[in-house]
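User: Thanks for the earlier help. One more: DUF3360 family protein. Can you show the sequence and predicted structure together?

Assistant: Of course, both are below.
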Amino acid sequence: MAERANRESNEANEKSYSELHRPASEFASRSDYLDHELQIMKPRRWALNLPGRDFRFEWEDLVPAIAGTIGIIAMYSAVMMSWADGLTEAWDHVNLGKEFAIEVARVEMLIPALLFCVFASGFMNPRANLAGNHGPMIPMIAGIALAGAHPLALAILIGFFGLLLSYLKGGSRLVNLTSQGVAGGLLVYLGFTGSMSQIGEIQRWALGLEGEMGYLGLVVLAVTVIVYAVLAKLGKRWLAIPLCAVSGLLIALVFGAGFDLVFETEMGIPNLNPVYWWGSTTEGWMLGLPNLQQFIASLPFAILAVAMWSPDFLGHKIFQELNYPRKTEKVLMDVDDTMTVCSVRQMVGTAVGGGNITSSWGTYMIPAAIAKRPIPGGAILLGSLCIIIAILGFPMDVAVWPPVMRVALLVGVSLPLLEAGMQMIKDSKDSQSAGICVFAAMVTNPVLAWALTMALDNNGLIGDKERPKTLSFADRIVVPISVLLICLAAMLAVGMLEGQYGIPALL
């Protein structure tokens, strides 16, 4: 019996995806069909993957594509407005505003979407997650500008450090050194704080309306909770972002909050000439090319951004592992390949005029994992949607409206992160590591908390006391302590602990 099973398994391994594919009608449920698709895929690494031969488009791919598009419009807009505000304050001759921010966001949605969503993650390496936005860095952007950093210098340094870490396989090593408890605690903290932040933003929006319609925020949140709970009960949580975002939009319109919504962004193609954006101090960013001093000012922020990639990537890969069936290792995102794509995308996207700080695309990966879909189909659809919306322009005005954007981020990112973190905490050892990780994150920030608890956990000081016996000296001492010191040094250099504890920036 075992011999027959091994023979059948070997035969399956030798057959291609197209030979193993079976129509959905042959399966008892849609979920079984999607599980089978994940188990038979054999994506080609840095080689051409074709629809039909290596993967298929399914209507479930639309969910992460739409979710990722809504999320990235919101993130890109926030990044560019932060750059505009910070640079305008930092430089006497610079005057950037909303029009500049939307134009740069459209540049980011055109060229990088084509090259790194459609081409890189869609056709060339479906194990590399899409290169999206580095959310935790957004609050720091104004400070980065005031510190004298240059967006192009920052992008070049992030790309260089990212490629170096990817070449050394450092990203995957750090992920493997993070235990279940530490990862669970990190996700719980990020999920909880993210949820509270989005809820607060919805309430601020409602109270800011004419007549202080605070009750409208409560109605939007109540309907969101009900819709999300029903979808969870039906096993359809992957529909949460489109359904909840649309419900938030409709409720706001019905209550009269959106009749003053103005579609300001006109149809067209933004300026795609890099010389316009970086060639002078009167056009584009009004900064010209970076000098040595601006590279030095950008250095600690670049180190910090790359140091924060590993916990970000870890959370996204965990989502796949929690939602995919067994025997799907071949379609899980590769951390090092994702780091390579993010690094190249960072340099190319900024060189052509963009300003995004990139990371693994969470608003795409989390819904894709819940919907049990691999990366390529949704990546191609998402890239296509980004290109269409960047050209049309006006959908960006709807996507950044608080009852749409905040609800989408709440149900598409924050709540799933919270749930995934709770699922990972399975025993007292995990709960101890998770609890200390959450506590450390509350005292400092999630990146430093991850580095600290990873070092403690790998040495048996918290969590599983047997864990150190399975690790080498480098994995117990050298790597965790080095990561902790690098993160701490970068944060002290850029003043990340100044607001909480009054420790001024060293640079």
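User: Great, one quick takeaway?

Assistant: The longest helix spans residues 62-90.
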